[in-house]
Amino acid sequence: MTLRIITVKVPSSYLVLIDRLVRKGLYGSRSEFIRQAIREKLEQYLREHPELLQDVSTRQLGIEPPRSSREVKVIYLGQHIR
According to the model, what pLDDT value does residue 68 have? Predict the structure, then answer.
């Protein structure tokens, strides 16, 4: 999966908390934290609205199409996340 650069503005209080998590070793970087947060939110929306996948290549998203409306697997760095 090709990673693209985007610009995101967040409150400084968010960065303070994200940086603490990174320093504690829970995430390797701010980017890793943000990717995980986005992945989790997308996973949630796709469970609730599987029709969102209709016009999107699931291969490009790194997402397996759900077998049922409750099953969405996100593939990231070769790992399945449920």
Answer: 55
Compute how many other C-beta atoms are within 10 angstroms of the C-beta atom of residue 18: 20
How many other CB atoms sit within 10 Å of the CB of residue 72?
Answer: 23
81 φ/ψ angles, rounded to the nearest 5 degrees: -120, 125
| Strands annotated E in 1-78 | 63-64, 73-76
Which comes out higher in pLDDT, residue 63 or 19? 19
For the whole prediction, is pTM greater than 0.70? no
Structural domain count, the chain: 1
CA dist 22 → 10, 17, 25, 36, 56 (Å): 16, 9, 5, 13, 32
Asked whether residue 35 is domain-assigned, the answer is yes
**17 contact partners, CB below 8 Å, separation of at least 6:** none
